[in-house]
C-alpha cells in the first residue's frame, strides 16, 4: 500500500482539511440540527439521494453531508472558529455518546511492491472435465492434505482456497443471490467477461465517472466476481463468486487516490443497498495504535445490518496494519504466495486486539481482469489482490447458509480457514481463507440384474417306426392249412 501519490511511505497520514464527525446512525434530523446550532453549517443527508447514492458533486460542494446508515458526517469547515466549535462538541460534552471528531485522510489504492513479485507467473491452462458420483456432504474442517486436490484450468489462488477443486471434492457455490460491493478505482463496464452480469455502479469521486482508467478496481472486481469461463479461452478461470451481483463503487480516482469521505460514502451506499460483503483494497499509513472512530462506526453498523467489510492489511513489508483495516470490526487481510508463505510485503499485527491481521488470501502473481485498454487481463501482487479473494469466498459462504451474515460470516471465515503451519499468527491470522466445498461420496457401481433362468424344453428325438408283425392267428391258420395237405 502506498501512502503517497509517488509511492513512498513515510508512515504518517496525510489530511484533506475536512473533518469526520462520528455520531449515531439513523439520526440525521437531530445530527444536522445540532451541527447547525453549533457551527452554523448546513449539512445535507444521504437520504436526500435515491438509494443513498450520494453524488460526487454533493460530496465536493456544500458544508458537508451526513451518512445515515453509518452515522458519520463529513464536514467542510469554513473557518478556524468552526473547527474549534466542532472539536468542542466532543471535548466539552458530558454525554458518553458525544460525537467524535477526527481529520479526514487521503487514502490510496494498494501499489504493487517488491519487484521480484511483479514479474508474476501464470499456471498452465488445461481443459478438465470431472464426473461427480454419489451423494455430497459439506466439508467443514479444513484438511491440509486436501490442498493438493486441485483442478487445472484456474489460477493458483482459486485452487489453494478450494474455490476450484478436483475429484473427490466438489464445488457447487457460485455467489448467486449475494451482493458484493467493491470500493476501488471503478470498473471497466465494457469488459467482455462481465457482459450480461448484474452490475450496479456509482462514482463518489468528483468529476469522474465509474469507468476505470487505472486498472486496480477492475482487477479486484475480477478476482472477487469474475466469470467462471473467461471469454478468452486461453485464460484460466480467475473469478471467485462468478454469479454474485456486483456493486462497483468508485471511491478512488483514476490516479489511485481518494479521501475518507468518498470511501465512507461508498460504505454507506453498500449498506443501504443490503450488500452482504464490502471489499476495500485501499488504505493509508499508520504508525500509532489508534484507529478511526468513523470507520469503526461504519463497520459496526455494517455488521448489525448483515454487511461484512473486508480490507487490505497493507503492503509496507512488516509495518502495522494500515488504516482503515486496523479497525477492530473490519476484517484485515494479509497476503501469501503460492507456497503459502507470508508475502514479504504483507503487513503484520502490531497492536492487538485491533490492528491485527485476521486472515490471509492469495496475493502474489494474481491474474485477473483489467480494462480492455490495458490488455483485458493482467497480473498484480499485493494485499489488494488477497482481499477480493477473501471477499469472494465470503460470498460463497453467505450463499451456502443464510445464517452467515455480518459477524456470523466473519466467524465462519475464521473457523474454516486453513491453518498455515510454521507461520506465526501475527503474520497470517487464522490462516488461508477457504471456500465451502463438498466431499463426494463414491457410490458403488450398480451390478447388472441376474437374468431369469431359461427353461430349455427337452429335445424330442424321433422314434423309428416298428415294422408290422404278422398276425398270429393268420400264421396259425396258414400253418394248419399246410399240414392238411
Q: Look up the CATH topology of the largest domain.
A: Rossmann fold
Specify the CATH homologous superfamily of the largest domain: Peptidase S8/S53 domain
Strand content bin = 15-25%
Separation, N- and C-terminal Cα atoms: 149 Å
CATH architecture of the largest domain: 3-Layer(aba) Sandwich
* Tally of alpha and pi helices: 12
Percent helix, as a range, is 10-25%
- Report the CATH C-level class of the largest domain: Alpha Beta
How would the global form be characterised? elongated
Mean pLDDT figure:
85
Taking Cα atoms only, what radius of gyration do you get, to the nearest Å? 35 Å
Number of domains: 2
Main beta sheet strand tally, sense and closure:
7 strands, mixed
Structural class: alpha/beta
Low-confidence stretches: 1-9, 114-151
Number of strands: 19
Amino acid at each position: 500500500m502506498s501512502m503517497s501519490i509517488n509511492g513512498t511511505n513515510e508512515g504518517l497520514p496525510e489530511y484533506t482539511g475536512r473533518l469526520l464527525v462520528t455520531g449515531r446512525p439513523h439520526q440525521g434530523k437531530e445530527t444536522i440540527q445540532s451541527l447547525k446550532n453549533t457551527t452554523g453549517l448546513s449539512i445535507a443527508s444521504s437520504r436526500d439521494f435515491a438509494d443513498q447514492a450520494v453524488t460526487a458533486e454533493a460530496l465536493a460542494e456544500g458544508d458537508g453531508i451526513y451518512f445515515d446508515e453509518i452515522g458519520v458526517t463529513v464536514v467542510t469547515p469554513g473557518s478556524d472558529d468552526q473547527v474549534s466549535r466542532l472539536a468542542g462538541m466532543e471535548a466539552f460534552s458530558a454525554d458518553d455518546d458525544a460525537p467524535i471528531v477526527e481529520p479526514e485522510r487521503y487514502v490510496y489504492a494498494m501499489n504493487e511492491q517488491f519487484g521480484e513479485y511483479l514479474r508474476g507467473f501464470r499456471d498452465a491452462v488445461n481443459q478438465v472435465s470431472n464426473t461427480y458420483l454419489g451423494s455430497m456432504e459439506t466439508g467443514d474442517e479444513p484438511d491440509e492434505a486436501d490442498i493438493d486436490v486441485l483442478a487445472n484450468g484456474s489460477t493458483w489462488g482459486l485452487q489453494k482456497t478450494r474455490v476450484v477443486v478436483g475429484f473427490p471434492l466438489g464445488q457447487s457455490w457460485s455467489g448467486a443471490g449475494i451482493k458484493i460491493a467493491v470500493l476501488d478505482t471503478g470498473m471497466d463496464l465494457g469488459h467482455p467477461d462481465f457482459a450480461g452480469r448484474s452490475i450496479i455502479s456509482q462514482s463518489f469521486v468528483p468529476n469522474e465517472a465509474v469507468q476505470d482508467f487505472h486498472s486496480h478496481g477492475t482487477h479486484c472486481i475480477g478476482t472477487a466476481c469474475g466469470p467462471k469461463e473467461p471469454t478468452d479461452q486461453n485464460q484460466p478461470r480467475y473469478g471467485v463468486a462468478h454469479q454474485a451481483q456486483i456493486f462497483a463503487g468508485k471511491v478512488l480516482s483514476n490516479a489511485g487516490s481518494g479521501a475518507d469521505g468518498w470511501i465512507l460514502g461508498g460504505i454507506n451506499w453498500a449498506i443501504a443497498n443490503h450488500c452482504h460483503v464490502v471489499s476495500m483494497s485501499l488504505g493509508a499509513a499508520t504508525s500509532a495504535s489508534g484507529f478511526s472512530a468513523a470507520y469503526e462506526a461504519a463497520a459496526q453498523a455494517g455488521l448489525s445490518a448483515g454487511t461484512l467489510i473486508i480490507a487490505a492489511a497493507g503492503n509496507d513489508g512488516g509495518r502495522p496494519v494500515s488504516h482503515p483495516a486496523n479497525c477492530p470490526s473490519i476484517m484485515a487481510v494479509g497476503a501469501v504466495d503460492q507456497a503459502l508463505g507470508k508475502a514479504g510485503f504483507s503487513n503484520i499485527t502490531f497492536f492487538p486486539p485491533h490492528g491485527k491481521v485476521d486472515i490471509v488470501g492469495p496475493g502474489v502473481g494474481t491474474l485477473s481482469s483489467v480494462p480492455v485498454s490495458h490488455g483485458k487481463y493482467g497480473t498484480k501482487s499485493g494485499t489488494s489482490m488477497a482481499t477480493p479473494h477473501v471477499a469472494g469466498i465470503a460470498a460463497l459462504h453467505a450463499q451456502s447458509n443464510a445464517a452467515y451474515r455480518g459477524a456470523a460470516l466473519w466467524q465462519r471465515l475464521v473457523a474454516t480457514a486453513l491453518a498455515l503451519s510454521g507461520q506465526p499468527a501475527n503474520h497470517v491470522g487464522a490462516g488461508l481463507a477457504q471456500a465451502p466445498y463438498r466431499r463426494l461420496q463414491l457410490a458403488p457401481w450398480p451390478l447388472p440384474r441376474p437374468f431369469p433362468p431359461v427353461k430349455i424344453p427337452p429335445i424330442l428325438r424321433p422314434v423309428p417306426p416298428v415294422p408290422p408283425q404278422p398276425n398270429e392267428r393268420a400264421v396259425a391258420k396258414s400253418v394248419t392249412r399246410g399240414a392238411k395237405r
